[in-house]
């Protein structure tokens, strides 16, 4: 394989040299790292990574190929992948194509032969790192460090329904900020009807569609970009039993007066220990977030903290004291990562079944 030289020019002043896997392309964005040992396809197709150049710390990527019949999103995902060693000859019974053929077809920029350990240490040291992948070493243009408008670009334009279509099926509405297919799949396992709605859907539209419960999805960018949506998020969650995942969790918190802040370098991986405050039980979770609900102000809010991160003590889950509103910062739908928390989604559906008021008789 003859490959063109690629550079990562960082806002820290560092320049790393590697090679392009596939077509040379120029792209810039926030440089983050994910420590999962598997799940590269899920990371590449998770819309929460939109606008980010994702470094995978596991050194060999592509060895079990790509299964094109699965994936978190067909159209969106990481803006680029930064890896150490690509595997060009995958071996797995479900693989339909190789990493190289897949990224070539998707026109996704991928750079390899990078010392990903060194790059990860740079990100850990500097925190907020932005960079540009470019074929030109002296490409020191000013990097755009504020990314806005990511959610509107990845959200559905009109409602789309999945699963049971019978009139008496329980109906869960998903507010799509960049949802992963795995969230829909986890809901559908409970024999419900799921409708995915655009990010700016109102309470009235949800009532018109006769939903019984609402799930606020994951998604890319700073939750404060959606400040205009907060009154609507609050109104919807005060009307329907509600559950938030990652960005959805952050938006629910903001809508009730909490604050969010940026973590030093984010939580992205498949082994983040989280403790349930009530039981002290620790579960390994799948995570992908750069922002977090700030501790400051939580006690003045209507929420109690339900989960805490064991590594850094940050807030991992909230439960409203009076309303049927709960949320988690981690990913109970997994993919990639441990499935130990998928029961949380089943419990939400059960709660909607038992306590959701069906007003659409
Ligand atoms: N996976 C997500 O929903 C990420 C939420 C948000 N974009 C963050 O980085 O914190």
Topology:
Layout: E1 5-10, E2 15-20, E3 27-34, H1 40-44, E4 52-56, E5 60-61, E6 80-82, E7 85-86, H2 99-106, E8 110-112, H3 116-126, E9 130-134, H4 150-154, E10 160-163, E11 171-175, H5 181-188, E12 193-197, H6 203-208, E13 213-216, H7 230-239, E14 242-245, H8 247-255, E15 260-276, E16 282-293, E17 303-309, E18 315-320, E19 325-328, H9 343-355
Parallel strand pairs: 3-4, 4-6, 5-7, 6-8, 11-12, 11-13, 13-14, 14-19
Antiparallel strand pairs: 1-2, 1-9, 2-8, 3-9, 10-12, 15-16, 15-17, 17-18, 18-19
Helix pairs in contact: 7-8
Bound molecules: glutamine.
Question: What this model shows, in words?
Answer:
The protein has 361 residues and is α/β, with parallel strands linked by helices. It has two domains: 130 residues, 3-Layer(bba) Sandwich (Glucose Oxidase, domain 1); 206 residues, Rossmann fold (3-Layer(aba) Sandwich), CATH 3.40.50.880. It has nine helices and 19 strands. The strands form three sheets. It has a ten-stranded mixed beta sheet, sandwiched between helices. The longest helix has 13 residues. The chain starts with a strand and ends in a 6-residue tail after the last helix. The relative contact order is 0.13. It binds glutamine. The site of glutamine has 11 residues, from strand 16.
Identify the CATH class of the largest domain. Answer: Alpha Beta
Q: Strand content of the residues, in percent?
A: 25-35%
Could you tell me which ligands this complex binds, including any ions or cofactors?
glutamine
| Average predicted local confidence, pLDDT | 95
CATH topology of the largest domain: Rossmann fold
Indicate how many domains the architecture comprises. 2
Q: Which radius of gyration do the C-alpha atoms yield?
A: 20 Å
Q: Give helix and strand order, one letter per element, not per position.
A: EEEHEEEEHEHEHEEHEHEHEHEEEEEH
Structural class: alpha/beta
> How many helices in DSSP terms?
9
Major sheet: size, sense and barrel closure? Answer: 10 strands, mixed
CATH homology superfamily name of the largest domain: Class I glutamine amidotransferase (GATase) domain
